[in-house]
Amino acid sequence: MVKAIINSIPVEVAENTTILDAASTVGVKIPNLCKHPDLRASAACGLCVVKVKGSPKMPRACCTPVQEGMDIITHDAEIVSVRKTVVELMLSAHPNECTVCGRNANCEFRRTLSDFGIREEIFDKISPQLPIDATTGVIVLDPSKCIKCGRCVVVCQEVQNVWALSFLERGIKTRISPAGDINLADSPCVRCGQCSAHCPTGAIIEKDDTDKVWAALQNPKKHCVVQIAPAVRVTLGEHFGFEPGTNLSKKIYTALRRMGFKAVFDTNFGADLTIMEEASEFVERFVHGKSALPLITTCCPSWVDFMEKFHPDMIEHFSSAKSPHEMLGVMAKTYYAGKKGFSASDVEVVSIMPCTAKKYETHRSKEMNASGYQDVDTVLTTRELSRMIRQAGIDFANLPDEECDHILGEYTGAGTIFGATGGVMEAALRTAAYFVTKENLPKVDFENVRGLKGVKETTVTIAGKEIRIAVAHGLANVEYVINKIREAKKAGAPLPYHFVEVMACPGGCIAGGGQPYGVTDELRAKRAKGLYAEDQGLPRRCSHDNPYIQQLYKEFLDKPLSDKSHHLLHTTYTARPLYQR
Amino acid sequence: MNKEELKKIKEETLARKKKTWIRVGMATCGIAAGAQDTYFALREELKKHKLTVDIRKCGCVGKCSAEPLVEVAMEGMPTVFYHHLTKDKVPQLVETHFLKKTVWHNQTISLQDPHQLRIVLRNCGIVDPDNIKDYIALGGYAALARVLEMKPEDVIDQVKKSGLRGRGGAGFPTGLKWELTRKVPADQKYIICNGDEGDPGAYMDRGVLEGDPHAVIEGMMIAGYAIGANKGFFYIRAEYPLAVERIEKAIKQCLSNKLLGQNIMGSSFSFDIEVRLGAGAFVCGEETALIASIEGKRGYPHPRPPYPAVKGLWDKPTCINNVETLANLPPILTNGAAWFAGIGHEKSKGTKVFAVTGKVKQSGLVEVPMGTTIRDIVFNIAGGAANNKKVKAVQTGGPSGGVIPEQFFDTPVSYENLQNLGSIMGSGGMIVMDEDDSMVDITKFYLGFCVDESCGKCAPCRIGGTQMLRILNRITAGEGTLADLDKLRSISQAMQKASLCGLGQTAPNPVVSTLRYFEHEYRALIKEPAPKQ
Fold first, then answer.
1. What is the pLDDT of residues A364-402, one digit of tens each?
2. Same-domain status, B425 and B445
3. DSSP B104-152
4. Could you count the other beta carbons within 10 Å of the beta carbon of residue A360?
């Protein structure tokens, strides 16, 4: 521990605590625009400068560790004047497009301008007009609005290990762009959207597809159905003043119904279906030795894209099971449509997802059209849904609770925990154990795969057999797991793992690229807690116990991994080049 | 190679030395003035007259404005320098000096200068930079041999006692920097020579690298031994192709003479050197950006701490020393700390090399003891302003420095004195301005340089520089207002206080220092418009 003084207030903090963090422990907030709790300090903006007695310089609070005996001043007339000039300089290089900006309600830069009471622009306007890159169809890069904080670059390179984004040129011409100045769609970008979730301004935002959904809802020829992902229920409330992690499924169902959806389904049902297929696949491989171990989960489209680009040698290990919302989409256009007497083309499927990459997943391969049409028509992120709710004039906080619709709605606790890192693994183990032993486990909780540790390795024993497991989240953490598998295969050594779960975003879908802004590990923990609490409270916690899943197989799919299941619920993978040109 | 072999090479080389020889200054300055043509013309002309004379090339002797410079020694004649000796003058030189055996008096120049003291440049213009034996004959690698018999801690102690401070600009005590790096436990450490000299008008390091590359290599090895590094990197800007070529050649010679590699001179010290080229970014002269550049990353500065001494190149403890700093080491370790500490001024010991350019009669590299006055450098060494103009000021420290008006020219040069005058020592650029020069134009030039070279990472430097340049352009176009002066001051303050690296923090210095001494020149350009009705 080190002792120091901040604005005459004594503080005692652990060694290597930054001045910024130390100050926050005593209620002192130092303004900054580049530091994000998730990321190492890039030290770019220059707003967090403070004074340390005895030094003529103003060190940056974001990256300067508190040292024993430091006497720190975080605010005085000179410091505020320096910060204000920096803010004014940043404003001079920023377009005045706030009224039509995707971040106008929650822009960190705009808030800073407001805090500093900037009432006029004293410097020449030198904001550039740079082309917008919307080529991914998922995230929109508007480099003119970039304040060069570097968060997107750090998250893309260091947290996700994708290296799609970098800085090009120098000085005032510095701008974010994929290396080589190519389009984002031609770059290694895996569309995880973590850049958009960390951007303080409107320089990187999700592509807004709300108009498309309004149009579909208006179309009398369309029977519009909707599904919500596991992770959305515990995050949407943050947009409406709820405590993070509050489970609001039932209010969301009500809101969607009021917006005009004919049926409101839940992706948790799709998750239960995914588990039926994936757990069967695991048993096939683990017990019957059909095709290679380890089995690697594929619910996360960014991870799939990453693997196809960076690790195509792992394709044989990939579960061919589609992700839950794709499974639900194809069931809506086949099973549900059949029951209702519609044809597949009459049904319009909208998915509310925590994720930007899900927008890409809907057309990533021909198997996504298993119904004969694109199985999921449109994906909206949590952020887009919150805007649609406001546009619809819905007082979300005061909505009554409603239930979701049959026959693709009811779900088990296994489905709901898909939203957190480790959840897919835990859900799969519950059902795999049943498939092997024909009885449910006495205890279905696998605490070892939960939590925010980057790579979680553990073993579980089912029917006397040890299953080695790895759960990784945040793509940079995948490298360790993949390398271990690769090395063991090369050496002919025993496999390090039998079953691997990967989620691209740190924390899993609860902190996906389309989720509410301002995520921290504290927030991740609260969101995950909301999901595990629901799982705990549900009468059925194993996917195979879902009676509607059983009914689906009985009436339509026959059994897991049947020909029909394969045709509708499974997909293929292909190696893709890192750069398209 | 061991001590005896070193001695043997020295003696043999000295014994072979002829009494008649010619040296042609062939650093970049000489070559630019035509020294290469002179060199070949001399060979042809001497061959024509069937004269066998040892013609050698050497580095810059310092009088760049007099290049091509040719030094001629002949038995029975005084050894003289011929200046501006272009190839057309070669026949007459050969005829006069070698055939008629008389000195061509109109063409000679004396390079004796009581104001100068050559420690760093001791061999420049004397040694053949491409010949390791030549360097050994002048006592080269003897300091290393001595150091390898000392304890690393004692080497550091000697350098600390000598008072040597970093010649790259900031003046951090070299011995202390070494001690900090040595103290950090690690399986691997690095020493880097910063040869990314980029200040406009400054070429001290180029002069040393081109003129005496082995001196820098020897200095680097001494530093490597002291801090416990077995690997060194030269980071040299790609715009210095001749310096790169000569360092690379010198490294090869060291390898073939076993002065690099395993167990050097039979000691436990092993050392290797690699060369890396800078790709043209000024900011890569900043330590943390330089390290990023060697690692193959974008040359962005990083916050300190952690300092390179703790976590540097590939996260290993790393010491970065400037070319001139390293070239000082062999003489310090040969002559002792007390000798070096006896030269200089107060807290600034030893000598400093300056590249004196601009409106002076004789531009070039000068090396003076710390404490020499600016007046001595500008007037007594460089000859004062050309065309009988009045000298107005000097600009020191490059784009990070400032201007010093003529009334302060009696100030003895030291790190502290220059800083007190609102400038800095910097790496050693000294540009002389006369009465015709507009200080606002000068400021615009320096600021424009920093705006071009800003890496773009942090907001104050990236945007502040650009905005200041716009204001200066407005003022010089006669469209400035008095409010613009306030804006210049507030941007300067924001850049100095809130920029991350030294480049951004010092980029406004030319503005601040010209506003301090020459605000009247700004005001003279401002025609305040009539207040709005």
1. 999 999 999 999 999 999 999 999 999 999 999 999 999
2. no
3. -GGGEE----TT---STTTTTTTS-TT-HHHHHHTTTTHHHHHHTTS-H
4. 22
Q: CA separation (Å) from A241 to A111, A112, A235, A396, A511?
A: 18, 21, 11, 10, 18
Contact assessment for residue A513 and residue A235, using Cβ atoms and an 8 Å cutoff: no
Q: What is the mean pLDDT of chain B?
A: 95
SS3 labels along B183-241: HCCCCCCEEEEEECCCCCCCCHHHHHHHHCHHHHHHHHHHHHHHHCCCEEEEEEECCCH
Q: Residue A534 domain-assigned? A: yes
Q: Are residues A393 and A253 in the same domain?
A: yes
Helix orientation angle between B213-227 and B323-335, rounded to the nearest 10 degrees: 80
**In the predicted structure, residue B1 carries a pLDDT above the cut 90:** no
Are B199 and B217 part of one and the same domain?
yes
pLDDT score for B531: 62
Question: Does residue B419 belong to the interface with chain A, where contact is any CB pair within 8 Å?
Answer: no
Side chain identity, residue B285: G
Nearest CB to A126; choose among B456, B466, B505? B466
Question: Sign of the CA dihedral B374, B380, B381, B386?
Answer: positive
Q: Which range of residues forms the domain containing residue A148? A: 120-205
Which pLDDT tens digit goes with each residue over A58-112?
A: 999 999 999 999 999 999 999 999 999 999 999 999 999 999 999 999 999 999 9
Query: Can you count the helices (H) and strands (E) in chain B?
Result: 21, 16
Kind of pairing between the strands at A165-168 and B21-25: unpaired
Length in residues, chain A: 581
Q: How far is C-alpha B359 from the geometric centre of its chain's CA atoms?
A: 20
Return the pLDDT at A36.
96
Model pTM score: 0.93
CATH number at residue B68: 3.40.30.10
CB distance B456–A126 less than 8 Å? Answer: no
Query: Quick one: DSSP state of residue B165?
Result: B
Run of H or E residues at A86? helix A77-92
In a domain, B418, yes or no: yes
| Unique residue bearing structure tokens 């279906």 | A273
What is the chain B residue with the closest CA to A48? B498
Share of chain B above pLDDT 70, in %: 99
Per residue in A339-358, is it b (16+ CB within 10 Å) or e — as a string? eeeeebeebbbbbbbbbbbb
Looking at the fold, whether B333 and B362 belong to one and the same domain comes out as no
Give strand pairing partners of B367.
Answer: B353
For residue B254 the two structure tokens come to 């060291």
For the record, the structure tokens of A322 come out as 């589609």
Per-residue tokens: A568: 């509708």
Residue A326 is a catalytic residue = no
pLDDT-derived band at B533 (thresholds 50, 70, 90) equals low
The residues near A102 (Cβ < 8 Å, ≥ 6 apart) are: A140, A202, A205, A206, A208
In the beta sheet, which residues pair with residue A232? none
pLDDT tens digit sequence for A249-308: 999 999 999 999 999 999 999 999 999 999 999 999 998 888 889 999 999 999 999 999
Chain A residues with CB inside 8 Å of B491's CB? 85, 89
Paired with B10 in beta bridges are: none
Q: How far apart are CA B96 and CA B309, in angstroms?
A: 58
Residue A144 catalytic? no
Gap from A169 CA to chain B (nearest CA, Å): 8
Q: Residue A85: which of B451, B462, B491 has the nearest Cβ? A: B491
**The two three-digit tokens of residue A138, written as one number:** 């998922």
Q: Is B418 on the interface with A (CB under 8 A)?
A: no
Residue A554 and residue A435 in one domain: yes
Is residue B14 within 8 A of residue B61, CB to CB? The reply is no
* C-beta separation of A184 from A135 below 8 A: yes
User: Is there a contact between A49 and B462 if contact means CB atoms under 8 Å apart?
Assistant: no
